[in-house]
Amino acid sequence: MSRFLWASYGMYFLGGTSSVLLGAIMPELLVHYHTNYTSGGILALLGSVGFIIGVPITASCMRRFRYQFVLSGAALAVAIAQIGLLCLPSFPLLGVLIVINGMGAASLETAVASYIMEQFEGRRAIFMSRLEVAFGVGALALPTLASLFIALHVWRLASLLIAMIAFVLTAFWQAVSYALQPEHTSSDGGPRDARTAAPPIFKSMLLKYGVLLLFLLMILIYVGVEGSLNSFLPSIFNVYLKTQPYLASLSSAVFWGSMVLGRLAIGWIVRRISYERYLLGSIVLGSVFFLGLILSNTAWLSYLAIFGLGLSLSAVYSITMVYANHTFPGMERTVTSSVTAFAGVGGAVFPFAIGYAMDHFLPKQVLYMILGSILVLLCSFLVIYTSLYIIRQRHVPTDKFA
Q: How far apart are CA 327 and CA 79, in angstroms?
């Protein structure tokens, strides 16, 4: 089992590196192709399109092939795309490679998360938090290395590095022989998630899928907010707080650094706090810290707010996914693939909308738009919790809020 888990962590690390590569080398790409940021935005959108396309393809492959084949294929798709990027082909072909990279990233995230959800019922949040740590470390490490490569005028080596990691994982998955068990649990006596109220009994399909859609709305909004912060946080600092460009860029490092720290702690937290309480506390704190960012008028207060925001929201995505899978037992692959697809939509739509707003509204108005999105996220969770509480009270009177 250890090989399976470490290879899974490696896949999420790969996903983290490949997801931030385009942003890390965007200025160099635009100079090389003699184009502008509008074209760069199109490339980012193509990556999201590839991500969305990759989810249903992966779900179909998971029904037909062994997990080793599916995961090797996902890593190989990323490797091929990165080797293509290394060669700096024509701009249209570059767009095709970006789509392939997005498909590979979607495939590895969908497949790994689905297998973890099926295999480790009762410990899902613990393992998902570890996967998210691996993703965050990759997302932190790649820009640092890319900056070094850019300084040495060998920025294309960032793609080569990702391709090498992907090729290693492609081969490694073929050496993993762990048999996925249908019992949905592990017998090694490891730590388990805190007790959460039992899954509800839905009386109608309409109610069941209505609740699922609310979970997916949460995912869409959260990933949209995170993607917008990834794309525009330095610009917001630069324009709103009038900071120097190098200080503005530091805001992204502070945000992702706090995200990684929060994800390191979540494995301990979810053994003591139920999914519901964690999500409620995280989203409320995230709203407070973001309001603090809006109201702050000095750089150091803004950095503190960003640090608190990253800590607060660090595991909202993974815990929402785990909570959704807990709510719909037996639907792990459907729920996980749907979550991943809606994450792709949110990651495409929100940054586009915020980018448009940055050109047409005042920075403070844009910040309030993002805060409004976080509040909608909170309202969506409260509707889910209230609905599930009412359903449980009607059909499982002994269950209580854990």
A: 36
| Reported pTM | 0.78
| pLDDT surpasses 50 at 397 | no
| Alpha helices (runs of H) in 241-274, residue ranges in sequence order | 245-269
**Rounded Cα–Cα distance for residues 288 and 172 (Å):** 44
**303-333 b/e with 16+ CB inside 10 Å = b?**
bbbbbbbbbbbbbbbbbbbbbbbbbbeeebb
124 neighbors 193 (Cβ within 8 angstroms): yes
> Which of 10-14, 269-273, 275-279, 292-296 holds the top average pLDDT?
10-14
Q: Which of 321, 306, 221, 313 is nearest to 262 (CA)?
A: 313
For residues 246-267, average pLDDT:
80
Could you tell me how far CA 376 lies from the centroid of its own chain?
19
CB-facing half-sphere around the CA of 200: CA atoms within 13 A: 25
CATH fold of the domain at 193-402: Growth Hormone; Chain: A; (1.20.1250)
Q: Closest Cα to residue 113, out of 278, 348, 340, 345?
A: 340
Annotation: CATH topology of 1-175: Growth Hormone; Chain: A; (1.20.1250)
End-to-end CA distance of the chain: 30
Distance CA 132, CA 260 (A): 8
76-86, pLDDT tens digit by residue?
A: 999 999 999 99
pLDDT of residue 151: 82
What's the token pair of residue 292? 């603090």
The three-state secondary structure class of 177 is coil
- Cα dihedral sign for 170, 175, 176, 179? positive
Report the percent of the chain where pLDDT is more than 90.
Answer: 38
Those residues whose C-beta lies under 8 Å from the C-beta of residue 150, and which sit 6 or more positions away, are: 25, 28
Contact between 128 and 118 under an 8 Å Cβ cutoff? The reply is no
pLDDT exceeds cutoff 50 at 185: no
**pLDDT of 91 above 90:** yes
Q: What angle do CA 326, 112, 181 make, to 5 degrees?
A: 70
Where does CATH 1.20.1250.20 sit in the chain? 1-175, 193-402
